[in-house]
Model the fold of this input.
Amino acid sequence: MLLNYLYSNFLEERAFADACQSSSKALDTLVQVRVFPVPSYEYTSNGQSVSFVSDFTDCDTYRFHLKGHTAWFDVITRLGLHTEERARRHFFSRYNEAKVTFLTSDLGRQLVEAAPDVGEQFDVEHADATWGHFLNGVYGVCTRDGQPESVFLKQAGVMFIEKMTAAGPGSLTPAQTQLLKRAVTLLDAVESDFAPHEAPQASRQRCIVDVRADFSLNVAA
Done:
């Protein structure tokens, strides 16, 4: 159920503020100055509780922040990143370090060799879109911890997997299939499970579940 998923992976705004030793008003201020993401989910209730003691009708809106974003709040507070320019610069210093580390790793080098044009997509326009999506709460939905490093790995995983699988099942050599399997494992580690109503159309289904089935990645070598 949706509420089980939300309360397992997110904190309702008042609980999130408490975890950050802050307040909902202070969080809203950080959102307004574009250094902190909006809640990833808003849930509007229209339900009724019935018990021996009393009945209660609940009509309210609950805002859920990813638990991992408490770390981003801590960074903002500790480093004084209270302008968008400073917050964005810090975000991309970590994002770009993760990019260099990955692309120079054994897996990264092999993926670049298999799909060399993917790296060219990480341009200025892509960076602007990434920052916008971060502030809009998108990466609170589709990554496990919402951190800049995970954002890059999520993007890279999806992009390389989509490129490698574009020609469909049967198009890859055994070596390429093993490389694809490693890319899927990487993405699986950083991408969220998604809410129940999102899962069928989310990138996890397309790039992990479907790819593992269509390319027989669950079959032991």
Observations:
- Residues 77 and 131 are 19 Å apart (CA to CA).
- The beta strands are 10-12, 41-44, 47-50, 55-58, 61-66.
- The chain has a mean pLDDT of 94.
